[in-house]
Amino acid sequence: MKVLVIGSGAREHALCRALSLDPDVTALYCAPGNAGIAEVAELRTVDALDGAAVAELAASLEAELVVVGPEAPLVAGVADVLRERGIPAFGPSADAAQLEGSKAFAKDVMAAAGVPTARAYVCTNEAEIDEALDA
């Protein structure tokens, strides 16, 4: 199986290292990757936030699976674009990724579902910050 991992952090390094040990993985690519990842995967260049560019790279590599590691590309909908183009992707949809990518969104979902969580304030200006600190 040909696998493309999107990202350049420690999470993606760990994923690439594990995938490199899998005998079913015949080719392993990472974009953009880093020096450590280069030891176990072939690095490629791509804007990780550009779903169309990631899909084009995956198609050119004939990737059979794309693993999207970081939050930002997931929130940007990269996994959605891949799936729309028929490329298997490991990662949540943009809507589902909001739970991890936006703490304020996650707090709203938890409150609506009655899930206990620590008190939090969303502040967008100095007056709101002062108000929250006095609460």
Task: Explain what the structure shows.
By secondary structure, the protein is an alpha/beta fold. It has two domains: 2-101, Rossmann fold; 102-135, no CATH class. Helices cover 46% and strands 15% of the residues. The protein contains seven helices and five strands; from the N terminus they run βαββαβααβααα. It has helices at residues 10-20, 51-61, 71-75, 78-84, 94-101, 103-113, 126-134; strands spanning 2-7, 27-32, 42-43, 65-68, 89-90. The longest helix is centred in the first third of the chain and has 11 residues, at 10-20. The model has no long low-confidence stretch (mean pLDDT 96).
Structural features:
135 residues; alpha/beta; Rossmann fold; five-stranded parallel β-sheet; 7 helices; 5 strands
